[in-house]
Design brief:
This protein is mostly helical and 116 residues long. Helix content is 85%, strand content 0%. It starts with a helix and ends with a helix.
């Protein structure tokens, strides 16, 4: 892999970490607020459904988590296994795409829950 590609992956890892740090805080604070406020799952879903702000928040959150996790997994696998090159990169891209798709599916389901 070229040095340029390695630098781009390093920047992507740091950029996604910068997005994830405040996103995780917002996510956890929201959960604590909801639980301490006595909200149940149905009430939480009702507040989230149809709210474009929460949808956009979770779309960005999921993208950052998928990229960050995939790049981190690539580093771990390349340092601890014999996996290298195109096979490793393809495996990591597949992992990232699947994680993003699953997360986005969850976000869109919550956004549109109960819509006809």
């Amino acid at each position: 892999m070229s040095t340029r590609t390695e630098v781009h992956m390093w920047i992507a890892q740091r950029a996604t970490a910068a997005v994830l740090a405040p996103a995780v805080i917002v996510h956890i604070v929201t959960i604590v607020y909801a639980v301490r406020g006595g909200l149940n799952a149905i009430e939480i879903i009702e507040r989230v459904q149809g709210n474009i702000g929460w949808l956009l928040f979770y779309v960005v959150f999921v993208f950052a988590a998928a990229v960050h996790g995939a790049l981190g997994l690539r580093t771990v696998l390349s340092e601890s296994t014999a996996l290298r090159g195109v096979f490793l990169d393809g495996l990591i891209v597949l992992f990232g795409v699947v994680m993003a798709a699953l997360g986005w599916r969850a976000a869109f389901v919550l956004f549109s829950y109960g819509a006809t």
